[in-house]
Amino acid sequence: MFGMIKNSLFGNTEETEYKLLSNETKDGVSFEVRRYDAAKYAVVSSEGRTFDQVTGELVRKLLMYIGGSNEQDEAMGTAAPIIITVYPRNDGVLSRRLVVAIRIPSNYQQSPPTPSDSAVRIEDRPGMTVYALQFGGFAGESEYRAEALRLTRTLGETAPFQRKQYFCCSYDPPLKPYGRRNEVWFLQEEP
To answer: Residue 24, SS3?
Structure first.
């Protein structure tokens, strides 16, 4: 636990790199189109509890893993963002199924430490192109849903993105009081 706290407060945060494809503004809403390369991620999932009930617990598991709670006792530094995959119902309410992921820092991509918590797994994720909308403040389910609706309306009905899932991203430690960065990502459908 101390390793996780030390790592998140004093460790280097490696932000996931991407290629900016475009920076656009429609109807006064600015968003980016980005390309992320394939990478290994530490992942945990949950079913049955709401976003706000379970995200803190799942994020802690991932921070403990990269903070040194793994078979090799290796503190890896930390990475941003934390990416929460959500699955909205037709009415916009999020289902009770979540997948939380954090990119394994670059120095450990080839051979990540083995998780000691059986709930944490290592996953190879393919490259992806996303529509990204940034916003500030402390974000929970209602804030992410509102921003996802704003991005949906901005992109319009014909934009090629997946509607059965989207990503809620947080870049900051939970105790950061101001200047917070959150994003909603929609996965662009590949032609």
So the answer is: strand
